[in-house]
Structure formats: C-alpha cells, structure tokens
Amino acid sequence: MATPLAVRLPPALRPPLLSSKLSTSFPPFLSCPPKRLLRSLPTDTRGPVVVADDGMYGRKQVVSLTPQLYHYVLSNVREPQILRELREETSTMHGSQMQVSPDQAQLLAMLVQIMGAKKCIEVGIYTGYSSLAVALALPDSGCLVACERDGRCLEVAKKFYERAGVSHKVDVRHALAVDTLNSLILSGETNSYDFAFVDADKRMYNEYFELLFQLVKTGGLIIIDNVLWHGKVADPGVNDPKSVSLRNFNRKILEDKRISISMVPIGDGMTICRKIADTSAQGLGCV
User: Fold this and answer.
1) Which residues, in sequence order, are CB contacts of 218 under 8 Å at separation 6+?
2) How confident is the model over 229-285, as pLDDT tens digits?
3) Which residue windows are coiled coil (predicted)?
C-alpha cells in the first residue's frame, strides 16, 4: 500500500499532534506513556496522518482531519432539512460554536435507534440541534428530558421542536441541570432512562455523570461531549480550570469499573459510557 500523503496546513489549522514541533509530552494521569507514541508520516499535498511509533500498536495509521477531508465527512451526513435550518439559524447567534456538528448528531440519533431507546435526557441543549436529532429518532411514545438554563436558547429550540412535530416527545426543563436531575431522582425515576447526553458546564461533568448514573438503567448509555477539549487535555502545559476538570474527569471514567467506555474522536471528542453495574446492587455510593 502506498504511503499516505499529507498537506502542510497553516499553523492555526494544524492539529496539536501535527504542529511543526511535535510534542512528546503526555498528561500526568498516563503513568507509563510509551516513548514517541505518535509520529507524523512523510507529507506532500493530500492529508496528514499519524502513526503509533510503538510496535505494540501495530504501526496503525490514523487520519487527522483536514478542512478538505472534514468537508467530505460532512457531505456524507444525512442531515434532515429541519436540522439544517436550525443549524443555519444558530450559526448567526452568539456562542454558535457550542452546537454539536452534524456528524455528531447523526451518531447520537443512530445510537438511540440501535438501542431502541424510549427515555432520554440531555444536559445542556443550547438551541436544540442534538436534542432535536434525538427526538426525531425516538418512537412517537418516546420522551426526552431537555435541560437548559438559557431561556433565549430554549425559545429557539422549542420553535424547532414544534416545526418538526416532536414537541410531544420533549419535556423542556428551564432550570439548572443539577436541580432537574435531582428532582427526577427524588420522584423515583432511577434506573429508568435508556440514554443521556451531556454538553454543559465542563467543571460540572463529574456531578452530572454521577446523577445520570443513578437515572440510567443498566445497559444504558451516558455520552459526554468535549472530552478532547480542543486538544488541551493532552497538553500538560495547559492547566486552566476547564482543562484540568476535563482531564481529571477523563481519568476518573477510564478507571470506573461500573461502565464500559469508548472515547471517539468525533467533533471535540465524545466518550460513550455504557452502564454495566448498578451502584445499589454493589453498595457503591455516588459522589
């Protein structure tokens, strides 16, 4: 097979591991990082590729998305018209970068369909792009609890729920997510939800996760967004509160034996967690 080819991107567009000076530093939670884990392959004009330099990884080649390649990925997303319209309206709003990408939303919807999910929760819906994708994937009898504290964003979301004909599936909660999740627990809804998605305050991820763990049934999914945080989690020189919080959270769920996990490099990174043990059955408390 021919050696994959690569393009030299401007510094602002280069992924962290493919910058002109390749970093070999690793986060402190990797106790025994392999030496020279990644290296860049020879380049010319097509697309950057990294490969595990440690033979134990089988010299697996991994594509790093260029703008051109990402455009190709997006061109292969089946985005419903109503979602496209919501995305375009949101693009004119402050904070539009918080909206999940179409490829992420498509993955979330597919997971809901694969699971046959009927009860879902989303923490932090912004203007509703991901929640609308999930609601469209739910059966007519399904329900999505949509948690959002920003009333202006909620008005946009509710408008599109109505236009898409899914308002009857969405239980909008205009409040702090922690309060909503605690109220669901107190009302006896533990171990009853199939699916949860979190895209909210990064410093609250641990608390959100533990509350959702109580609400999601064994075999259910909790999906966490922004786990790669623009590459900052892998840079030990970056220690702002959000980066440190996400780094610590990633380490925690890596070591959490109550779940199986897969960190997926889509969007800004998503970790899919499947609940495999019930705390009440094992006597484990929640933080």
Assistant:
1) 191, 275, 276, 277, 278
2) 999 999 999 999 999 999 999 999 999 999 999 999 999 999 999 999 876 544 333
3) none
Contact (CB, 8 A) for 82 and 163: yes
Q: Which long-range contacts (CB under 8 A, 24 or more apart) does 148-153 make?
A: 148/124, 148/172, 148/173, 148/174, 149/174, 149/175, 149/176, 149/177, 150/126, 153/125, 153/126, 153/127, 153/128
For helices 129-137 and 102-115, what crossing angle results, to 10°? Answer: 30
Give residue-wise pLDDT tens across range 27-68: 333 333 333 344 444 444 445 777 776 778 777 788 888 899
Give the span between the Cα atoms of 100 and 114, in whole angstroms: 20
Helix axes 205-215, 177-186, angle to 10 degrees: 20
pTM, full prediction: 0.81
Handedness of CA 218, 220, 222, 223 (dihedral sign): positive
Rounded-to-integer distance, Cα 274 and Cα 262, Å: 9
Give backbone dihedrals phi and psi of 99, rounded to 5 degrees, phi first.
-70, 135
